[in-house]
Amino acid sequence: MEIQYLDWNNSNQILNKAYEAGLFVLIIGPKGTGKTSLVRDFAENKSINLESINFSLRTRESHLIGTKTLTDGTVSFDEGILIKSMKEGNMLYLDEINSAEADVLLRLDEALDDRRQIVLKESTGEVIKAKENWFVIATINPLTHSGTKELPPQILSRFPVRIRLEYPPENIELEIIKKYVTGEHESEIIQAIKLANILRQAAAVEELFYSPSLRETIAFGKLLGKGMSSKEVAYFVFGNVYTQWGNIEYQKVSDIITSMFGN
Fold first, then answer.
1. What is the pTM of this model?
2. pLDDT at residue number 150
3. Which residues, in sequence order, are CB contacts of 152 under 8 Å at separation 6+?
């Protein structure tokens, strides 16, 4: 079942204006706030082919640029996702770009400057120029997330349009969850959203180590539809993860769950 994206803060409108102006966009926000869903929805609405890469410490230049291959004695060059998107004019989605290593960002910076071109030094030395309608969107998680780093100023400057995507208001989060679940559990789901927000706020001030995302509140609604009790689901979805940080952390959350869902 395909779920229609709920654009609750008009981010699609900003993306559309940036696309028309030829300006690259950076979406900033914690995990599970719908950053990837927003990008996919925009590409679908514009009928643009989408190329995407999720950055990590294992991402190498070759993933962006390409690699030489030897087949039956013939050397060829397999283009990476950056080169392919530039040549074809596809939209490029750089997910969690602040998890990339410095050498990868340096090569990416070459393509993102105002000339929109890159020298293919790994192969023929050809200068690859992006098609006029080439569009790039990147996302970053806050620096509190594991594996993330501060983006260098020169990379930040390549994305002059910045969208801040936070967790939606409680009534909007309920509408999002209702797109994924069926059944008569609205009051329990509202309670779960309140629990999620309490945990998110505690994580924001570093009282807890983990902040639940929209994925967790959606999972809560789905499990309720399978006949589980709301308190049981709350532990499986929200509570048990905190055992990773020890019993004291878990007990904090356990007490909150008990106060909200009963003994």
1. 0.88
2. 86
3. 102, 105
- Calpha distance 7→224 (Å, rounded): 26
* pLDDT at residue 263 in the model: 67
Residue bearing the bigger pLDDT, 136 or 4: 136
Do residues 25 and 15 make contact, with C-beta atoms less than 8 angstroms apart?
yes
In Å, what is the CA distance from 259 to each residue of 216, 226, 240, 263? 19, 23, 16, 8
Residue 177 backbone phi and psi in degrees, to 5: -60, -40
Nearby residues of 157 by Cβ (< 8 Å), 6 or more positions away: none
Tell me the average pLDDT across 243-259. Answer: 95
pLDDT at 164: 94
| Residue 195 CB-density burial (10 A; 0-12 exposed, 13-18 middle, 19+ buried) | buried
d(CA 263, CA 254): 11
Distance CA 214, CA 196 (A): 9
Q: In angstroms, rounded to a whole number, what is the distance separating the alpha carbons of residues 38 and 25?
A: 12
